[in-house]
């Protein structure tokens, strides 16, 4: 008997949807809505608030795990790469000196959902800036190239000393000894 | 040096129109501008604490705000936030705020960092909510209007259905009357009575044809003149037992308004009947009778029925012939038109417009110039050609 093949069941078909995709898409839509409603600058401000909070959590988690009061510069560079690795980014150190840490990136943790959402880069800026400033005293994060803006990869410069050479668009971060550590 | 910086900050604060304060991460107030003093009262004076402006019953709100200030202390880039503070009049007012590091802490820790905190009352948000309410109201109104439009469209459809039904029933009633007249004709003893009943039945059939077109057509405001002519001519031919080849029709696709359609149909019925009866007979040569419906003088219309018969003098026509012409005159007047009998194409034209044909065929012409005749959308050629045998 040659009957018609059974219709595929919803649970067995290949649909690009799981919790990770769902959450990344949610963030993309949320960031897009913010950018449209209040503009990129103000949207970046809101994302910065979130990034600062996430930076605090990650920084304290690494310091507890490494059992140190403050991370060294080498540890900071390693942590910045490692935290991105854990969330499926592909960051790597291009340069590390007393004055700055330069990182490259081949894969954004948000994946393709980051395209056209430069406000989401404030997560990286604030997390990197908070960790570097909190441990080394000062940081100015410069997003030279970003996948979100259409570059093939990211190039992030974390300046560790205040300098007139720091680009005006770089965001400065300072150590704080407040209650949110 | 420090005094100069403080004075500079105070100058900037005075220039800001919104409440603005210089605070420490624990909420201690170092400076405040006039707008802040007016809005928040004496508690916002230098030396005071923002923490005093929080409701005692909501310690979590104060904790969130202090965390926010601490984060603001980490960057010169302003961070957005929100806070509810007790104002000078005792009311709890929501503010949007923007906080950023203004002065870093002294290296020796003796002087805490200073933050610039700018407060924006959320009246703007309220204005936005007013706009949002107006948008919702407009959307509701649009929805209501759409519902009304749907109801009206439905009512219009029902009205069209009813109107078509009405025309249909009128047509059926007319056919029934025509049938009764034909039956009466069979019973009539005198030829004169039979002729009268025939004429009346034919006229009813002509009116019925118009009603049939009205309920069967795409619009209810009028009929196509060419379609009316093509529908009516075969009926007249059949009623007289005439050879369909006797007739040649040329009709333009003119729009005939409802109120003119029935008179025009009756006029055509009378003129064509007369032409077939008296213009060479029902079985004369093919094409001996010609019907033409065409635009006239711009907005007007002209209906001409021509035959190659012996012609006649309208003034001396007698009997049923004269009766039919009388009906044509009356209906033409009713439509505000003119009626003339001219010489046919077989004549020398001397009789044209003179009211007589001089025995060289007859061309009966009705013209309507004052009505709003409108041309319908052409279907194919602008002049529909018709030969009687093709559509009888």
Description of the structure:
The complex is a heterodimer of chains A (181) and B (392). Chain A is α+β, with helices and mostly antiparallel strands and 181 residues long. Chain A has one domain (17-174): Trafficking protein particle complex subunit 3 (Muramoyl-pentapeptide Carboxypeptidase, domain 2). Helix content of chain A is 43%, strand content 17%. Chain A contains three helices and five strands. Chain A has helices at residues 19-66, 73-86, 121-136, and strands at 91-96, 100-105, 138-145, 154-159, 171-174. In chain A, strands 1-2-4-3-5 form a five-stranded antiparallel sheet, with helices on one face. The N and C termini of chain A lie far apart (71 Å). In chain A, 39% of the residues are buried. Chain B is α+β, with helices and mostly antiparallel strands and 392 residues long. Chain B folds into two domains: 2-121, Beta-Lactamase (2-Layer Sandwich); 221-391, Heat Shock Protein 90 (2-Layer Sandwich), CATH 3.30.565.10. Chain B is 47% helix and 21% strand. Chain B has helices at 2-15, 34-40, 59-72, 123-187, 191-216, 225-240, 258-278, 319-334, 388-391; strands spanning 20-23, 29-32, 79-86, 92-103, 114-121, 222-224, 247-251, 254-257, 289-296, 300-307, 338-343, 362-368, 374-375, 384-387. Chain B has a six-stranded mixed sheet. In chain B, strands 2-1-5-4-3 form a five-stranded antiparallel sheet. Chain B has a three-stranded antiparallel sheet with strand order 6-8-13. The termini of chain B are far apart. Chain A binds chain B through residues 42, 45-46, 48-49, 52-53, 56, 129-130, 133-134, 171-180, and chain B through 25, 66-71, 73-81, 98, 101, 104-105, 113.
Write the layout of secondary structure elements.
The complex is a heterodimer of chains A (181) and B (392).
Chain A: H1 19-66, H2 73-86, E1 91-96, E2 100-105, H3 121-136, E3 138-145, E4 154-159, E5 171-174
Antiparallel strand pairs in A: 1-2, 2-4, 3-4, 3-5
Helix pairs in contact in A: 1-3
Chain B: H1 2-15, E1 20-23, E2 29-32, H2 34-40, H3 59-72, E3 79-86, E4 92-103, E5 114-121, H4 123-187, H5 191-216, E6 222-224, H6 225-240, E7 247-251, E8 254-257, H7 258-278, E9 289-296, E10 300-307, H8 319-334, E11 338-343, E12 362-368, E13 374-375, E14 384-387, H9 388-391
Parallel strand pairs in B: 7-9
Antiparallel strand pairs in B: 1-2, 1-5, 3-4, 4-5, 6-8, 7-14, 8-13, 9-10, 10-12, 11-12
Helix pairs in contact in B: 4-5, 5-6, 5-7, 6-7, 7-8
């Amino acid at each position: 008997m040659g009957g018609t093949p059974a219709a595929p069941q919803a649970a067995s078909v290949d649909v690009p949807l799981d919790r990770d995709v769902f959450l990344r898409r949610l963030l993309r839509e949320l960031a897009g809505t913010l950018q449209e409603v209040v503009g990129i600058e103000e949207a970046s401000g809101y994302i910065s608030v979130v990034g600062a909070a996430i930076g605090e959590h990650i920084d304290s988690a690494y310091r507890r795990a490494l059992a140190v009061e403050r991370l060294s510069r080498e540890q900071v560079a390693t942590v910045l790469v490692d935290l991105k690795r854990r969330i499926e980014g592909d960051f790597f150190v291009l340069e590390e000196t007393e004055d700055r840490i330069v990182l490259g990136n081949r894969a954004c943790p948000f994946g393709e959902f980051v395209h056209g959402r430069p406000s989401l880069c404030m997560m990286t800026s604030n997390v990197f800036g908070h960790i570097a400033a909190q441990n080394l005293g000062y940081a100015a994060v410069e997003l030279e190239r970003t996948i979100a803006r259409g570059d093939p990869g990211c190039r992030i410069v974390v300046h560790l000393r205040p300098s007139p050479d720091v680009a005006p668009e770089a965001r400065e971060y300072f150590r704080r000894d407040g209650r949110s550590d | 040096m420090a005094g100069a910086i403080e004075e500079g900050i105070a100058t900037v604060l005075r220039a800001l129109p919104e409440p603005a304060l210089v605070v420490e991460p624990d909420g201690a107030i170092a400076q405040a501008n006039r707008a802040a003093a007016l809005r928040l009262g004496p508690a916002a004076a230098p030396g005071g604490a923002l923490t005093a402006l929080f409701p005692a019953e909501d310690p979590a709100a104060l904790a969130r705000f202090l965390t926010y200030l601490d984060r603001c202390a980490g960057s010169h880039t302003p961070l957005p936030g929100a806070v509810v503070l007790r104002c000078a009049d005792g009311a709890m007012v929501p503010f949007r705020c923007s906080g950023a590091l203004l002065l870093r802490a002294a290296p020796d820790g003796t002087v805490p960092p200073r933050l610039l905190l700018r407060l924006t009352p959320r009246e703007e948000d309220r204005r936005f909510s007013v706009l949002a309410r107006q948008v919702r109201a407009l959307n509701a109104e649009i929805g209501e209007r759409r519902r009304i439009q749907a109801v009206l469209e439905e009512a219009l459809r029902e009205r069209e259905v009813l109107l078509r039904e009405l025309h249909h029933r009128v047509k059926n009633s007319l056919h029934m009357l025509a049938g009764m007249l034909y039956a009466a004709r069979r019973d009539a003893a005198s030829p004169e009575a039979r002729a009268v009943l025939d004429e009346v039945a034919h006229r009813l059939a002509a009116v019925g044809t118009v009603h049939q077109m009205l309920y069967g057509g795409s619009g209810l405001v009028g009929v196509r003149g060419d379609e009316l002519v093509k529908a009516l001519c075969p009926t007249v031919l059949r009623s007289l037992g005439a050879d369909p080849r006797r007739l040649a029709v040329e009709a333009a696709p003119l729009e005939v308004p409802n109120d003119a359609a029935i008179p025009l149909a009756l006029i055509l019925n009378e003129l064509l009947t007369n032409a077939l009866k008296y213009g060479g007979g029902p079985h004369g040569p093919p094409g001996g009778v010609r019907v033409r419906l065409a635009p006239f003088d711009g907005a007007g219309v002209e209906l001409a029925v021509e035959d190659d018969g012996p012609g006649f003098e309208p003034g001396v026509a007698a009997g049923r012939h004269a009766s039919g012409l009388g009906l044509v005159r009356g209906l033409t007047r009713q439509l505000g038109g003119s009626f003339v009998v001219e010489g046919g194409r077989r004549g020398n034209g001397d009789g044209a417009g003179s009211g007589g044909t001089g025995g060289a065929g007859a061309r009966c012409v009705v013209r309507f110039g004052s009505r709003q005749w409108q041309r319908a959308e052409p279907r194919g050629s602008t002049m529909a050609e018709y030969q009687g045998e093709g559509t009888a």
